[in-house]
Amino acid sequence: MRLPYLCFTVNLIKYYFVILLFIVWITPSKAQSRIVSGTIADAVTKEAIPFTAISFKNSFSGTAANESGFYQINISSDYENDSLQFSFLGYSRKMICVRNLKGNDSIFLSRNDFQLNEIVVRPNLPTFYIKEALKSVKKNYPKAPFETQAYFRQIFKENDHYVTCNESVFKSYYPNFQDTIKNQHQLLLFRKIDDVKKLAFMQEEREKRNKKYEKKNAKKNTAKPEPSLIPEEEKADIYDNFGGPESVLRSSNITKSNNSFLDSTQFNDYEYSFAPSTTFDNRELIVIDFKSKGKVDNVKSTGKIYIDAASDAFVKVEQSGVFYIPFLYKPILAVYGLSIGKPSFSITIEYQEQENLWYPKQIRYTIFAELEKSHWFEPNELATINVENLFLVNSIKTKGATTIPEAKRFTSKKKLETQVKNDINLNWNHVNTLK
Questions:
Q1: Strand 70-76 to strand 161-174: parallel, antiparallel, or no bridges (unpaired)?
Q2: Pairing verdict, β 107-109 and 33-42
Q3: Does residue 95 lie in a domain region?
Q4: Which of 78, 122, 124, 148 is the least crowded, having the fewest Cβ atoms under 10 Å away?
């Protein structure tokens, strides 16, 4: 058995690195609103607590702090009598009446007294609790249709210069989170910064190949692009939207995961151990560390698995590691004089509990690589590539979910800006973004 909503991990890593080789939500309100912002930090150390979950007590909506602990949230007059909840693993949840928030508030969270500083001696091995969580998937995740609005941010940098930097808001319909039925997505908002540069790495060579491709097509319209070329209809998506959100949205399906560290048939490829237990919203979480013994699917990785002790639900999974270029790719790299150094990644997936079921909350992943192109009579080309992605569910609608008309559905085959179907008059002032 395998964990839902994690099916993209290894394939996503491979997908991005192959591309490196070859290129080489909040529901809008008509009511008046105000913006509340501030920072979230540890009450004792005063250190920022990144990605703290922020939500309204009486609504399935909210946002999160950014990587620096800074938060900003739009509060309409409809929520003035509500309370905001701030929660993070290992800390006591803090609840503040919206009326008491002045607009620039520092929030301090205290470590939960229930947090255990020592490893609990448990009667079973770590893999036993992973198996129990896998067995409990059907009772812990929703089967009934639901909707979400989600904020998606993507950054692609080359040598610290933006090649892509865009934000989107998606409305999504999930027919059955535990089935392989295809989910439906609608792009409501899209914007990107103008201060970007073209990908410089191997630019001259790419231009030569493109001219060759265009010349061949001019002679024969049915000509297919050479294996080493990227078709024109795909180039814009790569440069304007590196990989696109589809790779993340696709992972929303409750399908079988290809994460080997959650596959009982591959448990022998990893070392598992208990870490000190922690808490989340007064729930005890069993924390399991894992580490690959060697390369597994061309990846050496370490990570943590957080399991709710009461429900056996996966609450959070963290994985980071190094990707090793498959042997079959090395001859291709050699032919083009290419090398890839320090290809690494990190992925965090979190769930949120609503009405005793667990729904997706956020996905964060980063990829880093150093590229080098060798030349005989010229200096070698060097590029440092950083890819950062964030998918944050801002609101969930568990009742009255409706399908998305086919004409409004998002597809990864077209450029994002051409697919905006904002039929609810949403604007960026209604959306909780991460600054």
A1: unpaired
A2: parallel
A3: no
A4: 124
- The candidate with the shortest Cα–Cα distance to 141, out of 343, 288, 357, is 357
Q: How high is the mean pLDDT in each 10-residue block of the chain (435 residues)?
A: 45 54 41 79 92 84 88 83 88 88 86 64 89 91 92 88 88 84 89 76 65 65 48 45 58 57 92 90 89 92 94 92 82 75 88 89 88 82 87 91 94 85 89 81
d(CA 8, CA 255): 10
Which uninterrupted H or E stretch holds 297? none
Residue 418 lies in a domain: yes
Would 338 be classed as within a structural domain?
A: yes
SS3 call for 263: coil
**Which bin fits 282, alpha (ψ -120 to 50), beta or left (φ > 0)?**
left
CA–CA separation, 96 and 57 (whole Å) = 10
DSSP 252: G
Q: How many Å apart are CA 77 and CA 426, to the nearest integer?
A: 17
For residue 64, is it within any domain?
A: no
Q: 164 vs 158, 160, 233, 412, 435, CA distance in Å?
A: 9, 11, 17, 16, 16
Q: What is the pTM of this model?
A: 0.81
Domain that holds residue 246: 9-24+115-430
